[in-house]
Write a structure and sequence with these properties.
With about 325 residues, this protein is α/β, with parallel strands linked by helices. It has one domain: Alpha-Beta Barrel (TIM Barrel). It contains twelve helices and 14 strands. The strands form three sheets. Strands 1-14-13-8-7-6-5-2 form an eight-stranded parallel β-sheet. It has a four-stranded antiparallel β-sheet with strand order 3-4-12-9. Helix 8 packs across helix 9 and helix 10 crosses helix 12. It binds ligand RRO. Ligand RRO binds next to loops.
């Protein structure tokens, strides 16, 4: 069952999902997420071939009070497409998440449209596809040298959206959801333009687009070491993607902008700075169907999902809310 079809009652489980990226590279890490309270398991973005990623150091943390943000320039290290779709991994994931299992989301981030389409071809041919809930196409990795962000290059982005959403793997498997992991956008005309490209792909228009994630890290962040007068990270001149609580406000702005512009059948998943149940609540208030947790998952480990869910439940109880629909998207503008 697709995690987006699980809405109603059971969607509550899927409400906090790990984000692709931190602690999602190895089978062991994915099984730990399956055993945790996470509502679903999402893989590291896969390429066709295994990659070791950029040179070290490629990750740093930024502490503001008791909150940890991050800058990374990992460079898409992953075990390769086959590792994230092999039957034995999918079986172990199901066994680890007993009794009912939980949705498994395959993130892909091919270095070209052709590479993404090739992975979808392989998926169509494989028996694994029936155990996948969603394919999340990452169009927002800021860290591969020489590869500008697809989500910021609108002519290329439009071609990618059209070709991927027309792939037969989605029509042949109606329960397989298609999602796109978007970069953060910063200006109203850009939200209009992206929504204008996404809306024709909505289910209500006969398309297959199930959801978008707002958003990936904010690129071109630069951590500086004042003592050594050097960059903190090595790859790409020291630049990397900024994530965690410092981008939460930007992520919530993206959730709200897209929620008000996208067809109702396209879910918006919030991703950015979710550390507590209050943060998850705020994202949902902005219109998020579910939230993903990245930096906090890396810092705290998979027990964060239980804590965040308990904090969210406590907050809802205090406010007298029984269901997420009682407050989802109901943010009021201050008069
Ligand atoms: O691996 C990475 O460097 C990376 C990826 Br693919 C991404 O989508 N976002 C990010 O912050 N880092």
């Amino acid at each position: 069952e697709s995690f987006l079809k699980m809405q109603a009652e059971t969607f509550k489980r899927a409400v906090r999902v790990n984000a692709s990226g931190p602690r999602t590279n190895t089978e062991q890490q994915l099984l730990e997420i399956a055993r945790s309270s996470a509502g679903a398991v999402c893989s590291k973005s896969a390429t066709l071939e295994e990659r070791s990623g950029n040179d070290q150091p490629r990750y740093t943390e930024i502490q503001l009070g008791d909150r940890t943000s991050s800058i990374n320039s990992e460079g898409l290290p992953n075990k390769g497409f086959a590792a994230y779709t092999e039957a034995s991994l999918l079986r172990r994931l199901r066994e680890s998440a007993e009794p009912a299992g939980k949705p498994y989301i395959l993130s892909i981030s091919g270095l070209s449209l052709q590479e993404n389409l090739r992975m979808l071809d392989l998926l169509l041919e494989s028996g694994s596809v029936e155990h996948l809930s969603a394919v999340e196409v990452n169009v927002a990795c800021p860290n591969v040298p020489g590869k500008p962000l697809v989500g910021y290059d609108f002519p290329q982005f439009e071609a990618v959206l059209k070709e991927i959403s027309a792939h037969p793997v989605f029509t042949a498997n109606p329960t397989l959801a298609l999602g796109f992991k978007l970069p953060p956008y910063l200006d109203a005309p850009l939200f209009d333009a992206v929504a204008g490209m996404l809306n024709p792909l909505a289910k209500s228009k006969g398309g297959v687009l199930g959801y978008v994630v707002c958003c990936n890290t904010l690129g071109s962040a630069l951590a500086v070491d004042v003592e050594t007068e050097t960059t903190v990270l090595h790859p790409k001149g020291g630049f990397g993607g900024l994530g965690g609580p410092v981008v939460r406000y930007l992520a919530m702005g993206n959730v709200s902008h897209f929620r008000s512009r996208l067809d109702e059948s396209i879910h918006v998943v919030g991703c950015g700075g979710v550390c507590t149940g209050e943060d998850a609540f705020a994202h949902i208030l902005c219109g998020a169907t579910a939230v993903q947790v990245a930096t906090q998952h890396r810092v705290e480990g998979p027990t964060c999902f239980y804590r965040i869910a308990e904090e969210l439940k406590d907050l809802m109880r205090r406010k007298g809310y029984k269901r997420l629909e009682d407050f989802r998207g109901k943010l009021k503008v201050l008069l």
